Structures are given as C-alpha cells and as structure tokens.
Amino acid sequence: MAGDGFGVVAVAIDEATESVRGLAEGITYPVLMDPDHVLTELYAISNVPAVVWIDERGRIARPNASEFGSDMFSEYSGRTRQGHFDQVRAWVRRGVVPDDAGSEVADLDDDELAARLHFRLAAHLRRTGDEDGAASHFDAAARLAPLDFTVVRAAMPLRGGDPFGEEFFALLEHYQAAGSPFHGISPSRHAG
Question: How far apart are CA 134 and CA 126, in angstroms?
C-alpha cells in the first residue's frame, strides 16, 4: 500500500542485531533497534507483538493493539493476520478506523515502571560485564512485572536463555492462564 501513502516501521526491542537480522530477512520496510525499550515505555506496550497506527500528521490513529504481521504465531494465538490487515486497508484506503481506535491505553503502573527501570539497569550492567548485578536487576524486574514480555521474555536471550524455548512456553502458559493481560487493545476487542 505504499502507493496509498502507507508505510511500516518495525521496532525490535532487542540488542542482538544478528538475531533480529535473521528474523528480518526478506522484509522490505525499516527495522529499528530499541535495546533500551524507549518505545515500549512511550506507548505503554507490555507484550509483543504490538501495533500502533500513526497517521500522516504524527497522531495516534489507533493505540497499541495485540496484532500480528505474519501468521508465524497463529498456532499459539489462535489468530491470523488477516483481520488486522483488512482493518489497515480500510483505514488507509477509505479512512475507516475500527470501533476500538478510540480506546485509551492505561499508563504503566508503578511496579511496571520500576520493572522497566530494573531491566534497563540490568541490561546496562550486562553490557559493562557485571553479570551478577545484571542478574539481580533482571530478577527484580521479573518479580515486579512477571507477565510483561517486554521485560521477562526480552531478558531471556540476555541471560543466555532461548526466547523460544521451554522458559518461553512456561511464561506463555502462565500469561494465558492469567487471561493474557495486555496494555492496549486486547485481541478479544477486535475482529481477526
């Protein structure tokens, strides 16, 4: 839909450029790196993937929603990308936004903010070689926001874990058992 003035920018909340490069292979739009998770704080994103629609004037046309750009995770989520793609086409081509576009996204609470600060500190300590200090802050972040994928799952590769391994599936099971909490428009509030 580039001919309609539409563009996509992906933001990876990762610091492993090589891992992201592998996932971005074949993608034709920009993929930016945000190792400090500034974007997730700015838009109160607690789980990924999340999509924010921003119009040509730089305004949020639809706040962050749990959406997929591919069907890679359909098996786990039970959803495909098609419903979201149909919504995007209607917005770009006809100016029609979904009913949930006016939804307000709650701010991160104090524990979530503290968890993100611990995560940032842990990532910094890890970069400087202080593995013990990093582990302490990664643990504190996980205690404060145990279901926040931008904290808990993002820490997995930084701690030597597999973000698609057993630890991830345990987190996913816990997350789903808790009702799949999400800052933003939850999957149950939109078609697709």
Answer: 5
